Amino acid sequence: MRKILTLSLLVFFTSVQPGLADDAPTAEALERGKAIAFTRAKGNCLACHLIQGGELAGNYGPPLLLMKTRFPDRADLRAQIWDASVREPTTRMPPYGRHRILTEDEIDLLVDFIHSL
Ligand code: HEC
Predict the structure, then answer these.
(1) Exposed, middle or buried by CB within 10 Å (0-12, 13-18, 19+), for 27?
(2) 82 lines ligand 1 (CB under 6 A)
(3) What is the rounded CA–CA span in Å between residue 67 and residue 91?
(4) CB contact burial 81-98 (16+ within 10 A = b; e otherwise)
(5) Going residue by residue through the chain (117 aa), what tens digit of pLDDT does each one get?
(6) Residue whose CA is closest, atom 5 of ligand 1?
(7) Centre of ligand 1 from the C-alpha of residue 23, in Å
(8) Contact 50, 59 (CB under 8 A)
(9) Residue 60: CB within 6 Å of ligand 1?
């Protein structure tokens, strides 16, 4: 009985753990996303948004915190960053994807970081 229990636990953890790891961005990916958000020549998000860990943040846009509560679906957050004018036609937020300010890969890293806030 004990052996069966140990074995089934083993099977459970080896099958579930890799799945979890695949979904969560790595620490390295989050650092790269953060660099894109904070670098002036890239995202420059701090010009308008307060972001934890960022210096001299502006308050033209809403503070970026509790992002999973406001954007449970990562795709909605990506869409906002890709082209904010879809949701708010008169927005001053740059359309990072539509205007190719950032590459699709950079946007993915950025979205992972912002979604983690
Ligand atoms: C020029 C100012 C400006 C810059 C730069 C800017 N934003 Fe925005 N952002 C805004 C404004 C203003 C809003 C409010 C809604 C709107 O107008 O679209 C907003 C809204 C958002 C929202 C939606 C927040 C919510 O709760 O609805 C997200 C997410 C966001 N911005 C992310 C970013 C990220 C990430 C960057 C950097 C890549 C960035 N923004 C750069 C001005 C800016």
Answers:
(1) exposed
(2) no
(3) 19
(4) bbbbeeeeeeeebbebbe
(5) 666 655 555 555 555 544 444 578 999 999 999 999 999 999 999 999 999 999 999 999 999 999 999 999 999 999 999 999 999 999 999 999 999 999 999 999 999 999 999
(6) 45
(7) 25
(8) yes
(9) yes
